[in-house]
Every structure is written in structure tokens, then in C-alpha cells.
Amino acid sequence: MLSRTALAWMPSPSLFWLTHLRCTGFQRKKRSEEWGLKIEMEGGEENKKKGLEGTGLNLPLNRHGNLKSASTDDNLQDILLQIKSSKTPAVVNYGASWCRVCSQILPAFCKLSNNFPKLSFVYADIDECPETTHHIRYTPTFHFYRDGERVDEMFGAGEQRLHDRLWLHS
After folding, report:
1. Nearest residue to 110 via CA among 39, 162, 36
2. d(CA 43, CA 127)
3. What is the mean pLDDT of residues 15-21?
4. Nearest to residue 159, comparing CAs of 134, 138, 135, 142?
5. What is the DSSP code (8-state) at residue 51?
6. Angle CA(22)–CA(58)–CA(47) in degrees, nearest 5?
7. Architecture of domain 87-170
8. Neighbouring residues of 120: CB distance < 8 A, sequence distance ≥ 6
9. 82: number of CA atoms within 13 Å, CB side?
10. CA 169 to chain centre
11. Alpha-carbon distance 108 to 103, whole Å?
């Protein structure tokens, strides 16, 4: 049982859930509306850039054409079907534009796409593809595919960790 002092230091339920949602990747429009939370989007939906352009980061150029960006649920589903029907190894990066860790690893992800030309690289923003990415609980999440099957999953960032996983699956 918690003492009165411990209870006094516990945050209110709404503050706890807002903090928890932001840290675990649940800050999505659909789910926030279900809980009665209102999260304003900057710039409006119609003016917002999608995919890698929507991150606002200065990303390295992709020299091999093996880096794709999914901007809608249909687009992501088509890309995942291509991955599952091909024999090409692939990695999918599920991130979010508001996620600080995602913003830190994304330039390295783009740079690594140049170092591993035989792999297909895909970036999907969970807010742009909410129906297809509803199973993603943490951002960034990386899914690795080989022969059309998902063979590995990595949570969080770390350029060396990501490089090692890519080397392992290439």
C-alpha cells in the first residue's frame, strides 16, 4: 500500500496518460479523440508535407533508389505487398514526425540506405498511415524482412545497432 506522501507525488491520471501516450507512440489523432483529448496539428492537414519531406530534416540523398516513403495507408500496404512477394531483403522504419528519437535516427537510416544497396528501405510515418500501423507501439520501430517474411524487429535508435542489424540481414 502506498503512503500518503507517495500518493501526493503521483501525477493526475490525465497528466500521466498524456505523458505515457507521448512516450510510447500512441499520440495519434484517432486514439486521442477516443479518449477526449484534443491535439492540434500545426499547419493544417491539407498543407502538411508527407513522408520523408514532412520531417523537415536535411536528409542525405539516396544514390541507389532503394529508399521509399509511404505517405498513405494504401501506399504502405502496396509497399508491404511488394516486400512480401519479392525475395529482396527489406527494412521498414516506423516513425513519427513529433518523435525526437525518430528525428535523430532518420538521417542515419537514409545514409545506411546508400551503404546497403541490395536492401529495400521504407519509411512510414505512423500518423500518415494510422490504419496500417495500428500495431506499432513504440517509435522508432524497425521491421526486417527476408524472402517475404518478417524475421526481426528492433525498437529504439542507435546507429551502430541499426548498422549491425542491416549487416546481419543483408
Report:
1. 162
2. 15
3. 42
4. 142
5. G
6. 65
7. 3-Layer(aba) Sandwich (3.40)
8. 66, 68, 83, 86, 88, 89, 90, 91
9. 15
10. 19
11. 10
CA distances to 34, 46, 118, 135 from 66, in Å: 37, 28, 8, 25
Residue ranges covered by each domain of the chain: 87-170
Residue 15, pLDDT above cutoff 90: no
Whose grid coordinates read 526481426?
152
> What does the pLDDT average to over 20-39?
45
Cell numbers placing 102: 525518430
Q: Cell triple for residue 73?
A: 495507408
Can 99 be counted among the known catalytic residues?
yes
Q: What is the pLDDT of residues 31-44, one digit of tens each?
A: 444 444 444 444 44
Active site residue 23: no
Query: 116-133: per-residue pLDDT in tens?
Result: 999 999 999 999 999 999
23, 102, 110, 129: the catalytic one is 102
